[in-house]
Design a protein that fits this description.
It is a single chain. The protein is an alpha+beta fold. It has one domain: Histidine kinase-like ATPase, C-terminal domain (Heat Shock Protein 90, 2-Layer Sandwich). It is 32% helix and 29% strand. The protein is built from 5 helices and 5 strands. The protein has a 5-stranded antiparallel sheet, with helices on one face.
């Protein structure tokens, strides 16, 4: 994000950890907000996908977390910050199909091991840091205008 860019929208959405009661609500709100802002549907859909994957990971593995949405004229910045178990091996966790899901998570229909790779694949910029026993922090950027678009 360029430091001189104006943030036209910013909001922080709390996400309940270790519960699927409200899973998917934040990503639904994000998509609706972006559509109201006249963000192209392809871009809004990508933002909703990365938000959903981050949200499900918080619901699955963290004690609690939040998703921060920032929109500038050129970018959508999505940060997911949680407190929880953290990720011991980020490189392994980034592999498609790698999962540490419990049976409970599997029974809910989640835990296929595609979340982090989907977030990386649907973002123009993806960064992850994690500390075992502390939590995980993700930053994803999706470019809005065609001049800056990396992936469709």
């Amino acid at each position: 994000m360029n430091s001189h860019e104006t943030v036209v929208y910013e909001n922080t959405f709390p996400v309940e950890g270790k519960s699927f009661n409200n899973a998917g609500q934040v990503s639904t709100q994000v998509k609706a907000l972006l559509q109201k802002m006249k963000i192209p549907i392809k871009i809004a859909r990508r933002a909703a996908i990365v938000t959903y994957e981050a949200e499900i990971n918080i619901c699955s593995y963290a004690d609690h977390g939040k998703i921060i949405l920032r929109v500038t004229p050129e970018e959508i910045i999505i940060e997911a910050i949680d407190e929880g178990q953290g990720i011991a091996d980020i490189e392994a966790a980034m592999e498609e199909g790698f999962s540490t899901a419990t049976e409970r998570i599997w029974r809910m229909g989640f835990g296929a091991g595609m979340g982090l790779s989907n977030m990386r694949n649907f973002s123009d910029y993806f960064h992850i840091t994690s500390e075992v026993g502390k939590g995980t922090r993700l930053k994803m950027i999706i470019c809005i205008d065609d001049k800056h678009l990396g992936k469709q």
